[in-house]
Amino acid sequence: MKTLTKTRSPASGIKLKTSQFQMIREVIYNYCGINMHEGKEALVQNRLLKRLRKLGLGSFDEYFSFIENDKSGAEFLSLVDVLTTNKTSFFRERKHFDFIERNILPGMAGRSVKWWSAGCSTGQEPITCAITLLEAQQRIPWTSVKILATDISREVLHTAKQGVYTSHKIGDMPAPIVNKYFNQWGADEYQVVEEVQKMITYGRLNLTKPWPLKGKFQLIMCRNVMIYFNRETQKEIVAKFYDLLEPGGYLFLGHSESIPSDNKLFKNIAPASYQKQ
Ligand SMILES: C[S@@+](CC[C@H](N)C(=O)[O-])C[C@H]1O[C@@H](n2cnc3c(N)ncnc32)[C@H](O)[C@@H]1O
Asked: Is 69 helix (H, G, I), strand (E, B) or coil?
């Protein structure tokens, strides 16, 4: 009779030590400002185990040596990829887009629009910006549009550039919008149309390092990103957004994020929506 032997992947049963968690925490904080709180050990362990499995490594020490010896730096970036939280969706926090359409876009008639989605994840946010502009174009004929979409994670940017989403991911949008802006791509996948993708430039940018950006934006969205940073980092980034916005330009944060009320740079005009003073 055959005996069933359970196959074990090299990475199963490996525990992340508290000292290893602290080390990762410090490295990630110094690199991209993400503040991984105590109590996130299990989450970090599970995410790192994905890399160990992929590389066929048997311990976290081996993995850390692998990163140190990888002079290309590629594995360090994969570590950043797995440790970032990329949850997003089309028309997420929809009130922002309704507000923009109603109160901001009318002022853009006859102008060129520059909009930055900072921390764009897999592309749903900048695609929503583009669709909002296209839907408004009949009434508010803007002359040209540039949507800059940046993120620190190479993996999400790769997905964003492909612009292919499962039906589950596009399911929250009304059918007429899906039919107009997405083409069926596979059995259960849809690709965003070229007209939309052409409006967006994707790039890798670490918000906590110097930004190689010029020119003024009318709109900046940095939603559900600042929540991972400490107060000091948030303040520094908000001040840099201020410099990059045109006078009277707009900044949108996630609905659970805010600029401290004692700030003199921005006026709070709607929930998590600010105008440069
Ligand atoms: C939760 S997602 C939010 C996506 C989108 N803005 C939304 O609200 O749906 C946060 C994104 O911020 C990115 N991120 C985290 N730290 C960053 C940093 N230092 N620089 C740039 N992007 C960062 C992550 O990679 C992730 O894709």
From this structure: helix
Ligand 1 centre to CA of 105 (Å) is 25
Q: Please give the backbone phi and psi of residue 145, each rounded to the nearest 5 degrees, phi first.
A: -135, 140
Would the pTM of this model clear 0.90, i.e. be above it?
yes
- Contact yes or no for 14/59 (Cβ under 8 A): yes
Other C-beta atoms closer than 10 Å to the C-beta of 218 total 20
Q: What SS3 class is residue 262?
A: coil
CATH T-level topology, domain 18-83: Chemotaxis Receptor Methyltransferase Cher; domain 1 (1.10.155)
Catalytic (active site) residue 47: yes
What whole-number distance in Å separates Cα of residue 23 and Cα of residue 275?
A: 39
Q: What are the residue boundaries of the structural domains of the chain, listed by start?
A: 18-83, 95-276
Best residue for ligand 1 mutational test, from 82, 120, 121 (most atoms within 8 Å of Cβ):
121
CB 195 within 8 Å of CB 160 = no
Query: How are beta strands 144-151 and 200-204 bridged, if at all?
Result: parallel
Q: What is the mean pLDDT of the chain?
A: 93
Asked whether the predicted pLDDT for residue 10 surpasses 60, the reply is no
